[in-house]
Specification:
By secondary structure, the chain is mainly α. It has five helices and four strands, in the order ααββαββαα. It has a two-stranded antiparallel sheet. A two-stranded antiparallel sheet has the order 3-4. The radius of gyration is 19 Å and the shape is elongated. The termini are far apart.
């Protein structure tokens, strides 16, 4: 039996339920400040991932014409990158869910395949922004606690 591709392609979360409970104990305003900073951080990672994402330009043939794979749309993978919050807004899944005509999530090939197709964009974006996002959330929490 053929193995089916996963329904989504994501790279991790950015917070946990235990942190949410602790922040709520400090005050609802602290939790809301942390959620707003997390959303801002997730948006920052998405923007960076989009800037790193390769855009399929087609294949240039000897005659100079450019050909595209059937159903391939230049920029579809980049445009599919998004951050989706959980129902509480305390965890964000950042994904790139562009699909080929046959329903295959080809972002996985670009992110993880060995050789010439390998052009990671999600992992490097999250890794490059991890500390900045953490600092943003910490600062938001500190400021909310100071304001009371």
């Amino acid at each position: 039996m053929a193995r089916r591709p996963p329904k989504t392609f994501t790279r991790g979360g950015m917070t946990t339920g235990a942190v949410e409970q602790h922040l709520r104990e400090l005050g609802e305003h602290v939790l809301q400040a942390a959620k707003a900073a997390l959303k801002e951080g997730a948006d920052m990672v998405v923007k960076d991932a989009k800037s790193r994402c390769p855009v399929y330009e087609g294949h240039k043939k000897e005659n100079g014409q450019v050909y595209h794979w059937a159903g391939a749309k230049p920029g579809a993978l980049r445009d599919s990158i998004q951050a989706e919050p959980n129902s509480k807004g305390t965890v964000y899944a950042i994904s790139a869910n562009a699909k080929s005509e046959d329903g295959y999530l080809y972002g996985q090939i670009i992110e993880f395949s060995p050789g010439e197709n390998n052009r990671p964009f999600l992992y490097p974006a999250l890794d490059a922004n991890r500390q900045a996002v953490s600092d943003m959330i910490q600062d938001a929490i500190k400021n909310a606690i100071r304001r009371g």
